[in-house]
């Protein structure tokens, strides 16, 4: 049975989404994407220089990828909407990751402004993926407003602290009927695997790959970890037990009786 | 609320006693902390911390990579005019200096803009001296309207304005404000700003607040290192940055570390800041303010700039020229100060790439 991730009218085999910021050079990005097998690539539109051949990051992204521009730099809904429209007008397609941040210390998203942008942009036909703090009632509002998937943070952007918001993300996974993609904070392949094991639909990774000593090898490692976590989730993890138990020392005698 | 209150709260504070009390252990403890308070920051600026500079550098490098990735943003300054009514002891534009004064015509602004943007640069910092008569806000607005066609980000480094004036410039397309206090020590400030509107310490100190109120996207501050004791100055500049971060949570705060350079006139800096001192300051800023951008200009030598890529620095100027229209216009206007790293954009780009970092030309649209 094929296990595909569906977002909008697209289907994906790989459940690893990639960010393109923070890399030591742009050329390496193409190789990283290829080796990771990722098909959804996010770019900060504010860094896209459409007029420059060398500097335009879009020239390093394979044509068979889905481009997901993000609204990085937006401080409110209005700026996010402006950037989204600019992305569409520049030929970046109709996917958009809404990122609204007005907290310069921790870079935490503003859920309220994000929701406003989701409302407007989904009506305009965008496939909208909001980056948000994992809050159930806000996430439900995002779904009602037309979000195609929800992207809760694992921990603050670039922090490499792993999935500190696990309990809240688990609630989103249980309660929402659209994909939940953990975005931000994932520092190690094992943490990406953990997200997938608990039933998240995908993960987005940037800093951990971009700033690794060898980004290409790290991309492969993440790809494998995401796949492993997904398989484990589908296979159904065994229940966690308090202590090792080989048999049934307390009730084993009952079996004797039935014999 | 003003940063002036914070500054004044240190009126009777003895930096010397504090520095005396710093131990090796204090520094090692700070290296294991995630969130630094102002005492930790001051300890990192102490003479004692200099002995641990390698360890501090390791942490600074790690934090910089984590929060900014392997990238260095590039911009260039563009001088619009050098008319000035101030007499500042340390500045080449001092109104008493007999220098060639000029101002770019709007045609020249466009010529200069075309030339600079042909070099891939997308971020520009425009500068003027302080002369409301020669370079009024209306003139700056006219220039910005032209520059908008060529650049994705326009910052200003001009005389301090009112909130309303900053708002007008934001509406025209200005997104960044650079305003250095020059010197936080109020007594020295008064001594070196001999005459002119710049004598007003508090009006300048509160300029970033007015920019923040006007919703400008980025604010860049700094102290001109060499005018007063650099350890104290760096401390106040860092506290000022944190104050602005707290007050304007949706504004990106940056900090520069300009060291005094040669210029027209005879002013000798009172305090020498050597390379070790400068690096210590940069590293202390990075640990105290992990997400604040740190800017290093071409005042510094190519060698030092090369070595500082990744060590806290996130932004650099390239192919700078400190005279009016110096990029593309033939004229004999005098420069504000001498630059040291004279490499062009292409060479600077190659250097950054060779260090394993990506030069970023565009970071706003």
Based on DSSP secondary structure assignment, what is the total number of beta strands of chain B?
11
How many helices of chain A in DSSP terms? 9
Strand order of the largest sheet of chain A: 5-4-3-10-9
End-to-end Cα distance of chain A: 41 Å
Oligomer: heterodimer
Describe the main β-sheet of chain B briefly: 8 strands, parallel, barrel
Pair of chains with the largest interface and how many residues each contributes: A-B, 31 and 29 residues
Query: Would you tell me the overall average pLDDT of chain B?
Result: 93
Shape of chain A: globular
Please tell me how large the radius of gyration of chain B is.
20 Å
Characterise the protein shown here.
The complex is a heterodimer of chains A (about 260) and B (about 375). Chain A is α/β, with parallel strands linked by helices and about 260 residues long. Chain A has nine helices and ten strands. In chain A, the strands form three sheets. Chain A has a five-stranded parallel β-sheet. The mean pLDDT of chain A is about 90. By secondary structure, chain B is α/β, with parallel strands linked by helices. Chain B has helices spanning about 5-10, 15-20, 25-30, 40-45, 45-50, 55-70, 105-115, 135-145, 165-170, 185-190, 200-205, 205-215, 230-245, 275-290, 300-310, 345-355; strands spanning about 70-80, 85-90, 125-130, 155, 175-180, 195, 220, 250-255, 295, 315, 360. In chain B, α7 (about 105-115) packs parallel to α8, α8 (about 135-145) runs parallel beside α9 (about 165-170) and α13 (about 230-245) packs parallel to α14 (about 275-290). Chain B is globular, with a radius of gyration of 20 Å. The chains are: A alpha/beta (about 260), B alpha/beta (about 375). The interface of A and B includes residues 24, 76 and 83 of A.
